[in-house]
Amino acid sequence: MLILRSSPASPFGRKVKIAAALLGLSDRITVERADTSDPNEPLRTQNPLGKIPALILENGETLYDSRVIVEYLDALAGGGRLIPAGWSRFDVLRQQALADGIMDAAILQSYEARWRPEERRDQRWLDHQQGKIDRALAVAETTLPAQSRRFHVGHVALAAALGYLDLRFQGRWRQAHPKLVRWLEDFDKRVPAFAATRAAA
Ligand SMILES: N[C@@H](CCC(=O)N[C@@H](CS)C(=O)NCC(=O)O)C(=O)O
Does the beta carbon of 50 lie inside 6 Å of ligand 1? Predict the structure, then answer.
């Protein structure tokens, strides 16, 4: 059995869980909750960066981060399923990088509130992160078709990113991005793992 160290609200963990489901690998993975703020968490030995997701393999080795884990799962499922070979690979990986970047920026915004007392929060820093999110969403809004024919890792990462914006930022992104809203509705309908991995607010 593979062990996935993650937490229900982690968007990167959700990306891995959805990818595993699309690859038909969910029942080979046990999810073990990790608390990234606990200094005694074994996660800090499993992944020195102390970040989730981390995947413990059957030989005891650990893989991180989510990009490496999805690549591993894709190979385990035969390869070329969520990450194509050939030139389209780079476009797909760029789409993943864009969505991962939305998650990184949104997580930094959440951590500003979680880790800093109110009087030390830095609005300029929050706005800097928001700029990344806004520009990345604008690119996704203009480049994504209303429906994707076959889902790849870029789509999975985008769904996880939008899901995290819904969870932590009251879905404010929805107002200015009608195409992305429709795209996510279609993803939700066609990928049951999206609803199955939604964290409670
Ligand atoms: N690039 C990493 C990002 C992972 C990440 O930022 N994980 C967050 C939770 S979703 C985390 O573990 N944060 C704890 C910390 O930074 O200490 C990936 O793709 O897995």
Answer: yes
| Pick from 41, 45, 92: nearest CA to 64 | 45
**Residue 64, CA distances (Å) to 58, 72, 160 in order:** 15, 10, 17
Q: How far is the CA of 12 from the centre of ligand 1 (A)?
A: 7
pLDDT of residue 147: 79
Q: What is the edge-to-edge ordering of all strands in the sheet holding 29-33? A: 29-33, 2-6, 54-56, 62-63
Q: Is 79 helix (H, G, I), strand (E, B) or coil?
A: coil
In DSSP terms, 55 is beta-bridged to: 4, 63
The pLDDT, as a whole number, for residue 40 is 97
Question: Which residue, chain included where needed, has tokens 């994504």?
Answer: 144
Ligand 1 pocket mutation pick from 14, 62, 107 by most atoms within 8 angstroms of CB: 107
What kind and span of H or E run contains 65? none
Residue pair 96/154 in contact by the 8 Å Cβ criterion: yes
Q: With a threshold of 0.85, does the pTM exceed it?
A: yes
DSSP 155-183: HHHHHHHHHHHHHHSTTGGGTT-HHHHHH
Question: Which tens digit of pLDDT belongs to each residue from 136-195?
Answer: 999 999 999 877 889 999 999 999 999 999 999 999 999 999 999 999 999 999 999 999
Angle formed at CA 98 by CA 92 and CA 99, multiple of 5 degrees: 95
Cβ of 110 less than 6 Å from ligand 1: no
